[in-house]
Automatic annotation (TrEMBL):
Family: Belongs to the GHMP kinase family. Homoserine kinase subfamily.
Protein name listed in UniProt: Homoserine kinase
Chief localisation class: cytoplasm
Gene Ontology MF terms in the entry: ATP binding; homoserine kinase activity
Matching Pfam families: GHMP_kinases_C (PF08544), GHMP_kinases_N (PF00288)
Keyword Mitochondrion found: no
Length: 322
């Protein structure tokens, strides 16, 4: 059953590598991408907004290719598509833009053909495409995700984010691709550093699951990727060390960077002081940045049902201003 009228989905952004959870711990954020996919006579793209500037508008586009992988897996041919997208998620900044595109395309393509694949199957496919499960797991399931991948099957446990958790992100005005940021990492780490991270990732997972925000500052520390990536985001090392003195309950590089994320407790937050601290440190390194106060998003990718006669852009504008 192909839904000739097309489908629309909304997908949250995500932060990966939460603290010590390199390639493992992710959290969905209330910043979104919207995607519409319809069967068409010839493939055409409508990409709206600055965040999608420069992306290909032909069959080499990630969204098109990912949608085709769903049709192939389900044995249903839908070769030509009309694809519309708008995104508030900045591209290549560490807020999971590629994961939101992959999850959005998988979810929309599956809906378009009557949902033959389960969410778990989509998770396996998304992880195989992204190569780590934390961003895609968060965008697909929402909330906080602790996930593992054996190269074929991805397994995730979803944790409901603590009510009081707020998130401040500082998004530097430059892009840093995951590929480039991974090249900065060593091939091997010491047993001491492995234990350092395993112990903190376990503590952080337990702390977030049980609402023990007082444990987050110690539990957020990492030795597996942030020290090696520090030179790629000047000022980051100082922010991670000192943010708790300015009202954060913990801070981390978001995904592969360059965005820096600070967690705060809504009941006890010195918002402006923390924001100014982040901006001042980055500015002292010659980096301008945009800050956003976000919250964990408790929902993953979902269909949005609206009157079909309204244009996609009208719908998106309505959502954005809602
Ligand atoms: N909507 C989209 N349509 C097509 N391709 C996209 C889209 N969004 C992202 N991409 C692709 O993903 C790339 C960015 O992926 P990358 O993993 O480097 O960064 P990120 O996902 O924004 O951050 P991180 O993975 O660190 O959280 C873009 O350069 C582009 O090739
Ligand atoms: N875990 C990934 C996140 C970015 O996709 C990395 O840090 O390389």
């Amino acid at each position: 059953m192909i839904r000739r009228e097309g489908v629309r989905v909304k997908v949250p952004a995500s932060t990966a590598n939460l603290g010590p959870g390199f390639d493992t711990l992710g959290m969905a954020l209330n910043l979104y991408a919207w995607l519409e996919v319809k069967p068409a006579d010839a493939t055409v793209f409508h990409l709206y907004g600055d965040n999608l500037d420069g992306l290909p508008k032909d069959k080499s586009n990630l969204i098109y290719k990912v949608a085709q992988s769903v049709f192939t897996a389900a044995g249903i041919a839908v070769p030509e598509l009309e694809i519309s997208m708008y995104s508030d998620i900045p591209l290549t900044r560490g807020l999971g833009s590629s994961a939101s595109a992959i999850v959005g395309a998988l979810y929309a393509a599956n809906l378009l053909i009557g949902s033959p694949l389960t969410r778990e199957q989509l998770f396996d496919m998304a992880t195989a495409l992204e190569h780590h499960p934390d961003n895609v797991g968060a965008s697909l399931y929402g909330g906080i995700i602790t996930a593992v991948w054996d190269g074929v099957r991805a397994t995730a446990l979803r944790i409901e984010p603590p009510e009081e958790l707020d998130v401040l992100v500082a998004i530097p005005d430059f892009q840093l691709s995951t590929t480039a940021a991974r090249e900065a990492l060593p091939k091997q780490v010491s047993l001491g550093d492995a234990v350092y991270n395993v112990s903190r990732a376990s503590l952080l997972t337990g702390a977030l699951a049980s609402g023990r925000l007082d444990l987050v500052a110690e539990a957020m520390r990492d030795r597996l990727h942030q020290p090696y990536r520090a030179a790629l985001v000047p000022g980051m090392a100082r922010i991670l060390e000192e943010a708790p003195r300015h009202g954060a309950i913990g801070a981390a590089l978001s995904g592969a960077g360059p965005t820096i994320l600070a967690l705060t407790n809504r009941n006890n937050r010195q918002g402006e002081e923390l924001r100014n601290f982040l901006l001042e440190v980055l500015q002292s390194e010659g980096i301008s940045a945009t800050t956003l106060w976000l919250k964990p998003c408790t929902h993953g990718a979902a269909e949005i049902t609206m009157e079909q006669e309204r244009s996609f852009l009208d719908i998106v504008k309505g959502e954005v201003t809602a």
